[in-house]
## 1
Amino acid sequence: MATRLEAFKAHYGWVQPWGFDYFNRRLTKARQDSDCALKLTLAYCNTPELQRAAVDALIFKCDVLWAILDAIAGKFPPPAAS
C-alpha cells in the first residue's frame, strides 16, 4: 500500500494532499483487513464451490478497481512528454 500511495502521488499530481487521506489511513488498516479476509476464507470456503466463489469475488473486485483506474486515466491522461 505504501508503494501504491507513492505512485499515486507521483502520477496524480493534480490531486490535493487531502485527496490521499483514504489511502494514508489504509497504510495501517490494509494488513488487518487482508488478514481477516484470509482467516474467513480459510474457515468458511471449505468446498471447491465456495473456493471458486471466493476466487470469483476477488476477480470481480479487481475488475472493478481496474475499471475505476481506467476511467480516471481516461479523464485525466498524463501530461505529454516535453
Note: The chain has three helices and no strands.
## 2
Amino acid sequence: MNWVLRASLTGLLIVASPLPVWAIDPVVLTIKDHKFTPDRVTVPAGERFRIEVLNKDDTVEEFESTDMKLEKIIVGGGKITLNAGPLKPGEYKFFGEYHQEQAFGTIVAVAP
C-alpha cells in the first residue's frame, strides 16, 4: 500500500495515511448510437480501477452494473468516472439503463 506523510503548518504533527492504489489506467467506454464501445474489457482481478464513460449521444443514459453494484447517470455529451473493484476473477455485466436491448457489455477480471 502507498502511504503519504502529512505535516501540519506548525511542523509538530506528522500523520501517515494510506492512499488508494489504482491498478491500471482508467477503462474508457464510449456510448454512441446507444451502444458501448468497447463492449468487452479486461482488468486485473483483485485490484481497484476506474471506469470513464463518455456519452456521445444527445440523450441521457445510465451506466449500470448490478454485478459490480454501480450506477450513474450520464447526460448527453457528458462524461462520468466511477471507482470499481477489487473484483474476483470472473465476468461482470454492465448496461445502459435506458437502452438495455442495445447498450450492454462485460468487464472480465482475470487473475495475474
Note: The first strand starts at residue 2 and ends at 7.
## 3
Amino acid sequence: MKKALIVYNPMSGIRNVPRRLDYIIERFVEKDILLTPFRIGNYGNEKILEILQQDDYSFVIASGGDGTVNSLVNVINRNNIKLPIGVIPSGTCNDFARSLNIPMDLKRCIDIIIAGNTAEVDAGLINNEFYFLNTCAGGNFADVSFNTSSEFKKNFGPLAYYMKALGEVTNIRSVNLKITTDNEVVEQDFLFFLILNGKHAAGFHNVIKEADLSDGFMDILLLRNCAPIDLASLFFKVMSNDFMNDRNVMWLRTRNCTIEGNSDFILSVDGERWDKLPVTVNFINKILKVFVK
C-alpha cells in the first residue's frame, strides 16, 4: 500500500475540510493509498519535516489557501525532498490552484490527485532562503491579506480583500524603489509592486494573461505614485481586467531581480507577512511537480 501525507489548515476558507476528512481518507484507501492527516497548528514546519522524514511517502497534499501550500513547498524545497504535491484548495482566493486550473470541488480535486498526472512549475526564491509559488508584493495594500480577519474572509471571501483595500485608498504613501532586473534598472516613486508567477492574485482573475507558471520568468507589476482619484479608477480597471495600459502601471519581465527601498515598506509573500526590503528574487524553473488535470 502506498502512503501519502495530507497537510490541512482547519481555519482556511469556510472550514469545510475538517468535516470532510473521513471522506477524503476513504477515497484514497479505496485506491490502496494510506493517507496520514496532519493538522497545521502553532508548532511550526519542523513537525511536517519530521513526519516526512520518518516514513516513505509517495506524495503530499496541501489543503488550505495559498499560505498553506507555500508552507509545505518550503519544507519540501528547502530540504531537497523530491515529492509531487497535490492541492485541495480551501482558502479565500486559492490563486495558485486557479492558475493551474485546479477546481474548487473536493471530489474533482481528489480525482486529479489519484489520476497521477503532474506538471512541473516554477517557484520564486527570496534572498536564497524562502520560496513562493504565486506572489511577492510590497507597499500599500500588501498587508490586506494578513490584516483581514479570518472571520471576515470566511463570510465575504475575496470581496473582503477588495473592501479592505478600498478603505486604505486615502492613506497611501509612495516610496522610492530601485528595481534591478536582468536587462534594466528602474528607479522611481512607487505605491506598490507585485511579483507574479501565475495569472491570478488576491482573487483577481487573469491579472497578467500572458503569465506562465513554467516559463522560468517572473512578471513584475509596479504602480507609480498617483492621486487617490486615479488610484480608485485604476482599482475598478483591475476588477474588469483593463489596467495594463494605464499610464500609472509598469510591467517588467525577468528571471532575477533586486528591489531596494525603504525598510518600512510592507511586504507580503503568498499572502503572508515578510520581513523588509531589500529583496533579491531568483526564479527557479520547473522546481516542483504538482498534480494537475
Note: The radius of gyration is 19 Å.
